[in-house]
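Deliverable D5.2: sample structural annotation.
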Amino acid sequence: QVQLVESGGGLVQPGGSLRLSCAATKFTLDYSTIAWFRQAPGKEREGVSCITSDGSTYYSDSVKGRFTISRDNAKNTVFLQMNSLKPEDTAVYYCAAGWGFKLRLAISEYDYWGQGTQVTVSS
């Protein structure tokens, strides 16, 4: 059974940094696109960033210039480096995997989802 396991969330002060990890089991990242989504309380889930099998990346406007997505196919892991964090970045962050090449953050295009990791930005 495919599993995506997120880690690295926590409490951080505004302006701080966190690095999220998404480890995949029974699923190869070689031919897939991996994305990060987030959901704040009372809000809909929104796309944050994605990375394709060839390393192409896409970011939502709200995180562009602050977040960096990367992947290590040998370790079957995708990372999200989050810098200059703001209180509005507070949410549960989910990683998701979809087959093929896609530079889109449409929820329906991702087949597998992790359980999420909480990120709280607060002083």
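Annotation notes: The radius of gyration is 13 Å. Residues 49 and 66 are 11 Å apart (CA to CA).
The annotation will be released with the project's public dataset once the embargo ends.
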